[in-house]
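Slide 14.
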Amino acid sequence: MINISRKEDCNGCSACFDICPSKAITLETDIEGFWYPRVDSELCIDCGLCDKTCPELHVGELKQNGCFEHPVVLASRHKDDKIRRESTSGGLFSALAEKMYEEDGYVGGAVYTDDFYARHIVSDKRDDLVRIRGSKHFQSETAGLFTQVKSLLKRGEKVLVCGAPCQMAGLRLFLGKNDKNLILVDFICLGINSPKVFHKHLQSLEQLYGAKAVSVQGKNKDLGWRSLAYKIRFANDRIYLCEGKDDAFTRGFVSLHINCRPACYECKYKGFPRISDITLGDFWGIEKVDKTMDDNMGTSVVLLNSQKGMDFFHSMEDKVHFTEKNMADVFPGNKALQISIEKPSINRDEFYADVDKLDFADVVKKYFPPSLNIFQKVKNKLAIFEDLAFQMGCSPKAYLQFLRINFFRKNTQCDVLHANLFYPTRYTVLNIHKSAVLSINGSLLLGHKRIKGSRLETRFAIEEGGSLILEKGFVSIFYGTDILVFKGASLKLNGQMTINQNVQIICMDSITIGEDVMISRDVVIRDNDGGHEILSAGYKKTAPVVIGNHVWIGQGVMIMKGVTIGNGAIISAGAWVSTNVKPNALVMGDPARTVQKNVEWRH
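Slide 15: predicted structure.
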């Protein structure tokens, strides 16, 4: 009878649950969100199968399965860039899965459920590959998986299954033999994270964004492979796109290892030989080893651990680019191949109790605030003022303008302590009414120049009762830009935004521009028809303009009143936009029309 006295001795693979002939084992979830087996002694028949199937008790035996002591090491990536963009690293799992489907086989892996938990499925439907590929950064349910795989193999079906090393160890032990029709794929694992912590994070974002999540993608590549970004779409078409260094859940497991299962601190599946036929991972450091294989869109490290794994890889090698490397090339960026993560020095009981009772934002502040040390903080502050000095030059007028608007103006709201300020550069002309409100919750650089010595003027005016609201992040507005906010109107900006040269923004009502927006040169955005009015029933000379997140606006575009541009859209150069643009649409022309749907882009 299996008996878990230390949580460190159970990886949650659920092999014991599947093997029990009397259904005496149930899986109970603890306060941390991890499940552990519980045996009903009245139902138990003392057959001992649960102990015989527990990989934690048989690691030595599992490693004597014919896998190579020294695997073949490859750097590889899928030839289809679209597949690679949608994958976690280089798209190698997709290539392996495609080959298995071509052989009329089954593919197994973790998918998101409707409520964004994770569970393993096995399917012969090619459409399921979209659901299976990509990282799910917390523990997936595998109960029932092993029984299903065994049944398929008994029927003579071919099966490829991918999971964490401990899950694949449980499956191999459950099956009891190395079936010729089975390909096991694991990955370089940094640790299994708590579903509970992830869902607290997700719920916090749903509250912040005002809608339920409709899609979740870890390690999204809109900001590049190395960004480790999370991208979450919400039912109201808003998008959360955040680099790993700033995403609380990602920092919790990548940097601090707070979210991980206790067994991960004593992982028994490190080193060699491996237990699976093929191991996949991110080839961190590939730019130092082979620049031809690196474009910041994802390169996989592939370990061919067995003859069966090697043969299967070479049967699908036409789908991928690959080149052989040495293990010494892999280790510097993938220490998790050999070393378990360090246990954090926190009170674990207190942490998970706080996860239950506190808002997740408060949990983050208490347990994993930004990890910058004092030297990094000082360096960042100095960098801000160094750039400010370049932009302002030696003009006393510019510095006086900076001080007046941030420190002495009554209706300016800013956070001096965190350098969330309005930075008007040397050749910026300001005309801001004393009643106008400036709410600066990030950093706004107005009149940014690239050519030293340029005197190109930047103009910014807000009339009586108008407002400029920067909700968060950094906004860079280049020289030559002309922004006018009329009486009582409101201009709202979000972070990570670039507004290039000679842009005109004329706001008489309301203009809102989302996060991560790129606005090219000579763009005009206006929510009004000026002082003119058409004498026609129902005519309005102003109507709000809303530009969503991660929008790319090309050179010379004109955006007219009443337009809403959805998240992820691309507005081609020279387009005249007078009607709404759907999310992820590419539009062009005069008038603008949709020429492509469901586009993805990055910068």
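Speaker note: The longest strand covers residues 213-220.
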